[in-house]
Amino acid sequence: MFYEGGYSTRTADASQIYVLRASPKPEEFGAVTAWHLDARNPAALSIAARTELRPNDIVFIREQPITTWGRALDQFLPSLVNAGLDAANG
Prior knowledge:
Blueprint (H helix, E strand, L loop, with lengths): L1 E2 L2 E2 L4 E11 L9 E6 L4 H7 L9 E6 L1 H25 L1
Antiparallel strand pairs: 1-2, 3-4, 3-5
């Protein structure tokens, strides 16, 4: 998740940052240039600091695996509890 000035270091995977830019040429419809940034690498950060974001660029940061696992549990556990309650009341 992006916040003004950065991203959540609690949920985002700093090694998996991507910038996607669609081609402005109509004849290249669907063509996309993608850059990958590993923000854990100081050398990569120095290059990233000189990279200019443009309007309509998409910045994507993959969430950490534990965040994905936590979201899956958040969706699974309530249904498991409800099923147990239904069985106990049934």
